[in-house]
Amino acid sequence: MRPSAVRLLNILVPVKRAVDYAVKIRVNPQQTGIDLNVKHSMNPFDEIAVEEAVRLRERMKDAVKSIKVVTIGPAKSAETLRTALAMGADGGIHVEIPESAPAPEPLGVAKTLRAIVEREKEKANVDIVILGKQAIDDDMGQTGQMLAGLLNWPQATYASKVVIDEANRVAHVTREIDGGAEEVKCKLPVIITTDLRLNEPRYASLPNIMKAKKKPIEKLSPSDLGVDLTPILETLKVTEPPKRVGGGKVENVDELITKLKEAGIEAVKS
């Protein structure tokens, strides 16, 4: 029997619809961004976050009350939510924006997530927010840290292992750092961002995909949450990196030095 004093945990997992990781990225003709008329899927780091939330519930049995996923994006983003629901989440929130609207920036996303966390208090407090450490489209890696700052919650980033002590309401998170790993202890509620080595996301089975179609998705707009997603950064131009040119062979060191000097590269004296 679980002690009645131990409150069940509610987990929130933000997910993002991004260009599929296997797609070769191309700059659009206007040079304002990348070509988005390609296959999209859930951001891989967010997929790991969904998987970890489901595994926490499996490991902790009845200690996790609910897993809710949230996304910000156009109507097509609902597909991303359905994928997360098929993996094991209980319900979703879709903050819908127009197809033509620019992609929300990390600060705008963090403010939206803060508003959702505050809104969820009316039903049940959010205890853990698990999200990918970065999105593979912009690679900014800022949303989790900004959300922790806005909520004034502890944070554990780049997690490679997560253990929750529900009795003491403490998260033990092993995180990757330069040259090794460290373990941090954070009191709940907490923000956790996921690294690649945390887990291997499962494939959703056909029965779970069918069940996901019946799970609830609540639709909201930014104005419902009192947030403004107008970008504060301006992209001036997007171009592809210069193509690499072939190298050449030299017969000896003297020829190498001559070639370097012709290229305007001076030798550094030790």
Can you characterise this structure?
- Its main location: mitochondrion.
- This is Probable electron transfer flavoprotein subunit beta.
- Keywords: Electron transport, Mitochondrion, Transport.
- Residues 31-229 form the Electron transfer flavoprotein alpha/beta-subunit N-terminal domain.
- There is one protein chain.
- With 270 residues, the protein is an alpha/beta fold.
- It has one domain (9-16, 43-229): HUPs (Rossmann fold, 3-Layer(aba) Sandwich).
- The protein contains 6 helices and 11 strands.
- The protein has a 9-stranded mixed sheet with strand order 9-8-7-10-6-1-4-5-11, sandwiched between helices.
- Helix 2 (78-87) links the parallel strand 4 (64-73) and strand 5 (91-96).
- The longest helix is centred in the N-terminal third of the chain and has 17 residues, at 44-60.
- It is globular and about 75 Å long.
Describe the secondary structure blueprint for this structure.
Layout: E1 9-14, E2 17-19, E3 40-42, H1 44-60, E4 64-73, H2 78-87, E5 91-96, H3 106-120, E6 128-132, H4 143-151, E7 155-165, E8 170-177, E9 180-187, E10 190-194, H5 206-212, E11 217-220, H6 253-262
Helix pairs in contact: 2-5, 3-4
